[in-house]
Amino acid sequence: MIVADHPVFQALVPVFLLIAAGWVAGWRGWIGAAAVKDLSNLVFVLLIPALLFRTMSQVRLEQLDWRPIAAYFSAVLPWFALQIMAWGWHPRGIVLALGGTFSNLVMIGIALVGLAYGQAGVVTLLTLIAVHALILLTLASVALELAEARAQDGGAAALSRARVLRTALGALRAAVIHPIPLPIACGLAWGALGWPLPDVVDRPLHLLGQAFGPLALVLVGISLAHTPLAGRWGTALRVALAKNIVLPVLVALCAWAWGLRGLPWTVLVVAAGVPVGANVFLFAQRYRVAQEDVTAATAVSTALAVPTLSAWMLLTAALTR
Hints:
This protein is mainly α. It has 13 helices and no strands.
């Protein structure tokens, strides 16, 4: 079966099945809506930190090739800022902007790139993964904390210069002492020391990290079952198009301008084209904003990825012959 053997099919079908399993669990009432927040907190404060610390503890900054990272984020960061401007400087707008920017590189990207491009492609992708969450989620955390403080103070016009400074410092502190940036920084520091993780510590961290992806996707399905999505498809489609189509175009142009060609260029374009990452849903749950919109956007983006990712992979193959 040619279709069944296609790497896009191989990577995305497990994602669909995990979301579908969560939807069935929610639809049948096995897991109620009230439990979603507690499960999200479990993922956010335990599973993600374990995964990030263990992953980053194995990274050696001096061995990273920074050109793919610079090329990727020279497109991603301006696009993130433009989307915040388009959606509005408030928590909902920031979460939706993150949805149009943050790729599901771990759950979908690694499997897809490994199947399609082999170990050489995975090495390029892991270089990006090493800092992807650190950069985007830290920026999103700071932006969300600032937006929430701004909303509580009645808007920027009501803030004095001293208050703005205090708010910024408080937001930065809240973003650093956070379940995502903090374990990344701690993992990098551990790796910089050159110490291996003791096996008695590494094995539990590995098991916790393995639970993150499946549980996060099951939670998306549970939320779908408990969320009325009528009237949200316009927002979901807008986020999905920003993520699946516009971002890969921008990354392709920036990576080409940075002089990347061949496999590294292809991997960056495909990485930009994978669907919305589950972390965006967890952010929405964490800050209790745009949860229904993000749930719908994740579903639409994942479904849309079947034709769009296939198109990006075919196009990059034709351009790099």
